[in-house]
Amino acid sequence: MKRRYKLLIGFIITGIILITIFFMTRDKQIYYLSLGDSLAAGQTPNNTIEESYGDYVAEYLKDKEVLEFYTKKFSKSGYRSIDLLNDLNNNKKIKVDGKEITIKHALIKADIVTVSIGSNDLFYKLNVGNEFDMDEFDDIYTYVDEAISDVDKLLYELRKSCKEQIMVFGFYNPFTNFSSSLANTVEPVIVYANEKMKNLVKKYDMTYVDIHDMFLANDNYLPSKLEIHPTKDGYKAMAKSVINLIDKKTLAK
To answer: Fewer Cβ close by (within 10 Å): the C or N end of the chain?
Structure first.
């Protein structure tokens, strides 16, 4: 009788240990969602879609054996804040591995969300692809405020759906490796927009990903032509910025 009792206790203890291990392991698995514009999609300076920063982040998490799920299929080249906001309001559907998921369902499940948005709002006004004179604009900073206001509405909706870690990229100056005069012209606008974005991200208890200085310091992150999309090295550097934050804020827990 005592032997059976001991065996029963042993089975119970073993079961408790296995269940504990299961939940501990499950909790460490990361559901990763990459949202945004062409940077999230992975558009190259040659106008092709290849690896984005999100793909490199997902690869890192997979190597760490902590990646549960990843998609960047909600991202799209040319997206402005209002486009992603419309996707949220319409609860856009995509298919991943033959299964249909909605953006709100993905946000609810997500442990980490990265967002790159707002660049198209800014550079649409600046008419990238042509030389421009900042004196043409009555008040470019008022326009930046309007663009950031659209981002504000988007981040508000994102935070409603996702209570976990949301990382929002700031802006880099895309002209530093093409034209110093053009870069110098637009630099004050980029700096102003980044300050606005930083304050906005803080407002919603999100994480700001600062990439401005590293793009200034590394010519190989950008092409030597009038193009706003990074090189592969640029995307990898963006991913590294996210990975450093994940190591500190998520995996270190």
So the answer is: N
The helix/strand/coil state of 36 is strand
Are 230 and 238 a contacting pair, CB within 8 Å? yes
Across 164-239, the runs of DSSP E, i.e. the strands, are 165-169, 207-209
Q: How far apart are the first and last CA of the chain?
A: 45
Please identify which residue in the block is written with the tokens 């193009």.
Answer: 227
In whole angstroms, what is the distance from residue 69 CA to residue 109 CA? Answer: 10
Residues 6+ apart with CB under 8 A from 96: 71, 73
Q: Which two tokens stand for residue 245?
A: 């934050």
List all residues 6 or more positions away from 220 whose beta carbon is below 8 Å from its beta carbon: 231, 233, 234
Residue with tokens 């609860």: 91
Q: With b meaning 16 or more CB within 10 Å and e meaning fewer, what string describes 189-223?
A: bbebbbebbeebbeeeebbbbebbeebbeeeebbb
Q: What is the pTM of this model?
A: 0.86
| DSSP per-residue letters across 50-96 | ---HHHHHHHHHHHTT-EEEEE-TT--TT--HHHHHHHHHTT-EEEE
Name the 3-class secondary structure at 166.
strand
CATH architecture label of 30-251: 3-Layer(aba) Sandwich (3.40)
* Distance between CA atoms of residues 164 and 108, nearest Å: 9
Region of 205 on the Ramachandran plot (φ > 0 left; ψ -120 to 50 alpha; else beta): left
Q: Which amino acid is at 81?
A: S
pLDDT per residue over 149-161, tens digit each?
A: 999 999 999 999 9
Q: What is the pLDDT of residues 75-103, one digit of tens each?
A: 999 999 999 999 999 999 999 999 999 99
Three-class secondary structure of residue 132 per DSSP? coil
